[in-house]
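Is 6-O-phosphono-beta-D-glucopyranose placement plausible here? Inputs below.
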Amino acid sequence: MTETQAPPATEEENPLLEGLRRRRTPEPCALTIFGASGDLTQRKLFPALYALAVRHLLPERFAVVGVARTEMETDDFVARMREAVIEHGRDEFQEEVWEELAAGVRYIVSDFSEHSGWDALAACLTELDEERGTAGNRVFYLAVPPGAFAGIVENVGRRRTTSGWTRLICEKPFGHDLESARRLNETIARYFAEEEVFRIDHYLGKETVQNMLVLRFANGIFEPIWNRQFVDHVQITVAESLGLEGRAAFYESSGAIRDIVQNHLLQLVALTAMEPPIAFDPESVRNEKVKVLRSLHTPGPKHIVRGQYGPGFIEGAEVPGYREEEGVAPDSETETYVAGKLFVDNWRWADTPFYFRTGKRLPKRETTIAIQFKRAPKPPFEAAEEGMRPNVLLLHIQPDEGVSLAIGAKVPGQGLAIRTVHMDFLYGGAFRTGLPEAYERLILDCMLGDATLFMRADEVEEQWALVDSVIAGWRRDRPAFPNYAAGSWGPAAADELLHRDGRSWRRH
Ligand code: BG6
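Reply from A.M.:
I modeled the complex. Tokens:
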């Protein structure tokens, strides 16, 4: 694809971004983060708030209250967050921008089992309304383990102020299975209307994931061929080279199917397969996604593969197997890899397989969606058939964000040889501006009251229903773990899954 002429080089000069700035300034509000001493707040939330501050996208009157069990004063918390922004932020650090943001930051020590914590929070928010002009508008961000959700929701719900709006952001995981997710949805529904609830799947905030919708619905050429008549199959890969990163306690009870398939992966399936929504608004987009999730067939045991990594090498360095990781049981049966074949049982996609795979300790970090088209019918170049491969539209979600179309081309010279070449669009080259982090988009959307890129209650439940039935099937037999080496592309059974259908995973 020939890239269109690049817009001006810096974000300041870019009129598109100027437009965005003008349109997207939220009303005054205070953001309360429960779980403020955790990893997410340091690595993602504060760097995202700072990036929004740099771009003047935060409300003019704004405050943040961090709440956690760790004993510290507001000053200590601010100092920690400053370090976090310097370490994890995507912009050059500017003291004046930070000072302005930090002036509205407060910290409260509480585990919320006792009244005093709630009273302190209520008093702090009232004070901020007066001092900072946050107007009674509240966002409550639950960055805590799922077990702590319900208690916080009830307390926040019972103490809602009536003077402004209140919104709830729920970090993933949303429940542990269908039953717990339903219970949580019921608790939330007692105090909040659905449009006040923002369930995070941070993949939806990724620029490239949103671009899928633009690619499909803003370009006339793709939609007519986006169906079973033209598409042979779809391959979705969410690969990570990272291992546990000190999260054994969480991962042991989660595994790859709950951690990635239940949310990120099924969202990618839904966005790939959905019908065009009538508008880009929360209800229209989510209605279409839910239809896809409802039409998914639970893969039978032959169509799903699980794996766990043994010792191996990542980028030349020796790494331990999963069972040797700190905090993991030596006979753990937790899966670190899942591959499977799904069918979307509707008119557009009937009989078109959607293969997916995800795993930790794979050779590299890569998230892609490959739409493989059917082969050309009888090509008139018999002698050159060897080099002919089906067209593939490859969406690079990360890294090297962009879109690539594989086509056959004649190799220059005598005779007729055909080779696959790629027409590439790369974000970096076309727009010459850094991509925002998913959390920037999501926090801002919530403050603007736009839930389009968040999961609705019924979506989460559909996703759990599918995952629960896969897990129920697994309970019958003991897996022979470990079954792939760290640094390999997963268990042999995952290759067989495609070979049985006369296909193979895309080469890297
Ligand atoms: C999280 C998972 O939701 O997504 C992690 O809990 C995973 O295990 C992470 O590493 C991947 O996110 P990203 O944005 O790095 O692809």
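Short version: Confidence is low (pLDDT under 50) at residues 1-9, 14-22.
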